[in-house]
Specification:
The complex is a heterodimer of chains A (about 400) and B (about 160). Chain A is mainly alpha-helical. Chain A has one domain (about 60-400): Cytochrome-c3 Hydrogenase, chain B, CATH 1.10.645.10. Helices cover about 50% and strands about 10% of the residues of chain A. Chain A has helices spanning about 60, 70-75, 80-95, 105-130, 135-155, 180-200, 205-210, 220-225, 230-235, 240-245, 265-290, 305-310, 315-325, 365-370, 375, 380-390, 395-400, and strands at about 20, 35-40, 45-50, 165, 170, 330-340, 345-350, 360-365. In chain A, the strands form 3 sheets. In chain A, strands 1-2-3 form a 3-stranded antiparallel beta sheet. In chain A, strands 6-7-8 form a 3-stranded antiparallel beta sheet. A two-stranded antiparallel sheet of chain A has the order 4-5. In chain A, a hairpin with a 7-residue loop joins strand 7 and strand 8. The longest helix of chain A is centred in the first third of the chain and has 29 residues, at about 105-130. The N and C termini of chain A lie close together (about 10 Å). Chain B has a domain at about 10-110: Beta Polymerase, domain 2. Chain B is globular. Chain B is α/β, with parallel strands linked by helices and about 160 residues long. The longest helix of chain B is centred in the last third of the chain and has 12 residues, at about 120-130. Classes of the chains: A mainly alpha (about 400), B alpha/beta (about 160). At the A-B interface, helix 1, strand 6, strand 7, strand 8 and helix 14 of A face strand 3, strand 4 and helix 4 of B.
Amino acid sequence: MAHVPSAPIVDPSLDRTLVLNMGPQHPSTHGVLRLVLEIDGETIVRLHPEIGYLHTGIEKTCEAKFYQQVVPLTDRIDYLCPLTNNLTYCLAVEKLLGLEIPPKAQWMRVLLNELTRINSHLVWLGTHAMDLGAMTVFLYCFREREDILRMFEMVSGQRMMTSYFRIGGLALEPPLGFFEKVKSFADRFPGNVDEYEGLLTGNPIFQMRTKGIGRLSAEDAIALGATGPTLRGSGVDIDLRRDAPYTGYENFKFNVPLGKDGDVFSRYIIRVQELRESIGMVQQALAGMPEGPIKADAPKVVLPDREKMKTQMEALIYHFKIITEGFSVPAGEVYQAVESPRGEMGYYIVSDGTAKPYRVHMRGPSFANLQTLSKMCEGQLIADVVAAIGSIDVVLGDIDR
Amino acid sequence: MPLAPAITDIEELKSHPALARLLEWNPAIVQSAKFDRDELTLWIERGAIREACAILRDNADCPFNYLADLTCVDWYPSEPRFEVVYHLLSIPTKERIRLKVKLDGSSPVLESVTSVWPAAHNYEREVFDLFGVRFTGHPRLERIMMPENWEGHPLRKDYPVEGYR
């Protein structure tokens, strides 16, 4: 938990300003984010985010687990995109091990990762619009999100804490009827995006609340470490899916939308366009889904199929050994970065050659983006803070870890 | 796909723009280098880290203008105990590089890089909070995750996973 400053952050000689506490239980802070605002009338003089209310010490916990036991912990970091967390962690460990992943598993990873991005952006869009007073969008967004959560439940058995990607591939074969369900969703989803846009993009009230608000120049965005749509909203052209492709993204065609103004509205436009790009990638993944195994051929690392365990002695032995003593990973270190819905999500893993990671560090995109909030809000009105928080799409689980 | 052996010879790695620039500036500050699993790591002399970062950021052909991550690893009980790790990204060329600084357990202090990248502000606070590494020149080095009156630094290896009871 973050501390309470013992002395007010204001300069007592300036008897003009007032310190206002926003959060940690404010509905627009999307979790337990506390903002200490120093205000002059209704204008923000200084803004100071206080974090740590959701700190769970996941990095420390990881050091006491086997490599495969860390996968379910990663779901709980950025709880709006659990599969992206799974993916980043698995890619990092696979890089440490030098494992090659079969094409079907890679394409499934892209497919589900893009569905996760849509899921996350839908939660963002709904709550962001609701913060600004547009209630209907929230209901529409959560209607489609429910469809995506059902698909996650189909493949993994869980709606949110999926843990579906495992080191070396996937946990299970996708069930019968899964691809048809994704296909019908992907076919109707562009129409849904038109629906959201019809409610917001041309809406004069929404435009007044977002255009020219929370501006961030490209130089400031880079210097303050902004990432993802927040960085692209300021016109900086970077998307790790295109620039440092992983898990087969080089086989997909997509555009990287860029903003010009660096304000709340351009971040909104970018995310809405990303919804369309993502559904395009889902369609490509469905059309080109290769056949084949879903797990790498590495019996010492990947759990055997249930059927093999009943008929083959070796499979049973490997299963027993992986479960009881884990698998050792060659000493070394990797930093694996992935484009999550919020920006660069990086896992830095240090291995000392044993079955437990020596150090796991998660570089959360929200942690980086939060630092831009002061720059966006200073000199603006209190009401615009709500718009600015929504536009950087913070997830507190990702910040505090 | 078997792992290629790591390259640790500085001469062999000299073609990398970041290493070339640092060697051109001051060869004494690069203690060692390693190229492993497609990632380049440079160990930098403790006193030179801020200047080295500034030089890499302002490098003309390959400016490492983005601080992607800053963290620390505790190698307790061996000495030097701490390694502060910087992950830099060059947005124009998409190159990545990792810098490391070794610190003794007795005086884990080094210069802050907040003047080079303001983004380092929260990362350095986090490393201070969870590892007890101090950064000189940081504008507000306070605990960020743990309460202000917390004792100890939880991510140190001599701190029990279950905490003190």
